[in-house]
Amino acid sequence: QVQLVESGGGLVQPGGSLRLSCAASGFTFSRFAMSWYRQAPGKEREAVAAINSAGGSTTYAESVKGRFTISRDYAKNLVYLQMNSLKPEDTAVYYCNVQLPVGLSLRDYWGQGTQVTVSS
Prior knowledge:
11 strands; 7-stranded mixed β-sheet
């Protein structure tokens, strides 16, 4: 079955860096785009970054452009989110996501999330 397992979250001071990882299994990793989302307390889940199946195209939320970088490792079926210059407003649970075809529609799959807290 499809599994997404995030890791790498933690407590970091403002201006610091973290690298999140998402281990993907249960589907053909090289064929699908992958995304990172986040959800802060009391807020809706929002898209942070996405990378296409070939790895050559990435998109970012305006709030993280220039600070975050999404990448993928096809040999290890991993997706990374490198987060630099972290701000307190980046505090959230970060989720890995893939959309897979199920019949004639697309289904979202999510990991369990990893907590990122930016605080001094």
